[in-house]
Specification:
single chain, mainly alpha, about 75% helix, globular, transcription, RNA_pol_sigma70_r2, RNA_pol_sigma-70-like, sigma factor
Length: about 170
Amino acid sequence: MKQSIDDIYEEHMQDIFRYLLSLCREHHLAEDLVQETFLRAYLYLENYRGEDVKPWLFRIAHNVLIDHYRKHKRTIVKEQGFFQRLFGKGKGTEQEVLLKSEVAEVMDAISTLNEQQAQAILLFDYHSLTYKEAAEAMGVTDTYFKVLLYRARQKVRSIRGKENEKND
């Protein structure tokens, strides 16, 4: 590994923070988990032999989140709004309201998916990882990742279709 932990932190901290925030939906918890992620990365960086560190960091972040939930086995009420703030910049008021509504519907639909499907959508669609990077981050094969992503998108479309039928 040629990069220092400082360079890696500067380059990937925002991505890891957004990823963890989208999964846990608590700002302060996400910050704590980012710290734990980069601490673990620092401890094992010299043993890492891969070329691209980004999927490895997402995998560490996911493991840190799982470890946190195992430690704190209770349900935490999630805050909506992260994606609304993320996508709502630079739009007119009406477009912003429509976009916020649509993002909220999609996030509600994603919250009904099982953990692997939700993670597949978040890694690929929201964090723009490639199939290979996202599969590596999740610890699954590329083929299985594509199946997870396909099924997750189908389920989200189905849920949104049912909601639209109710509104019509």
